[in-house]
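PROTOCOL LOG
Step 1. Enter all chains and additional molecules of the complex.
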Amino acid sequence: MSARQILFGQVETGQSITSLQLGPLTTSHLVRWCGASENWHKIHYDAAFAVQHDGLPGLLINGSLKQHFLAKMLKDWAGGQGRLWKLSYQFRAMNLVGEALTAWGIVTGTEERGRFGLVYLAVGIRNEHGRESTPGKAAVVLPLSTAVPVPYPFDPERDLA
Amino acid sequence: MPETHPETLLTDEIRAHIGMEGPVLTATEQVERGYVRRFAQAIMDVSPEYAQAGNRDPDPLSPPLLPLFLFQRPFPSGDYLTERAGDPDFDGTDLSSYTGLPELPLPGLALLNGGAEVEFFRYARHGELVEQQSRYLDIRERQSSKGPMLLVLTETTYSTVAGEKLLRVVQTDIRR
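Step 2. Run joint prediction.
Step 3. Record the structure below.
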């Protein structure tokens, strides 16, 4: 979690938020996630099956794992007084074992709504070669001042009226 | 012989599933402290608020998307990994539906995770029991170089058994 709370007034369109660096991701990372998620799809840990049977170029990093990287990046950026409200993502390209990933976000718009500020972002995940795999969008609610944190639990109908 | 593809996958039988709602399902177990630890370590998000009370909530929390993974094969049940161990084409996936929705009659078509839209309300607390309910929100057809494919949009709401909203997720599955 961020040590300092970011406020709505500190955010501008075009600004990059703090990115999240991960990896290189190994088979061990994927097996750990397969166990936690109870998903035993062989394309994530059985190289012979992935390559010879399914014709893939290697073991695939789970989309179900990558989605958490975006959520963590945004949650941490919003800080303890802000709220991650919405996140969408598309798994458009594969990431393979051995890749190092970067979750990133850029502010695409801002809007003051009631007592809080809405920040819209383009987000994504790219590998160490700059290849994008997981484009998406997000909406984060930030406080206007530290005196009035965004409520938790968050109710958009009540809190953004 | 050139490979042939059906003109459409979006038949009336498939279209009839749009709007179908599944039953309210209760998670296999409540949110357990040990599971939260293993889950948080696996996603590499070891926030202190997952282990102890923080300034956001008086109770330890769980990672935002954890409720999606609380609906697992119940115990006791058959061991599908053992049952299919001798099948060289078995890909390791569990064919059970954890949404409670009727399966779409699309035998032989691959299922790919296309992505999702998530709306967050609050994070599940340790000890809470979570429910989910799903419905087929929409089924759309797209043409690809390999023929038609379907985008199956399933909306699932996650709540506590006390009725507090946690998440709303629209999952896109690609069938081709």
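Step 4. Note key features.
The longest strand of chain A covers residues 101-113.
Chain A touches chain B at residues 1, 22, 29, 32-33, 35-43, 46, 49, 53-54, 63-65, 67-69, 71-72, 75-76, 80, 83-91, 134, 136, 152-156 (CB under 8 Å).
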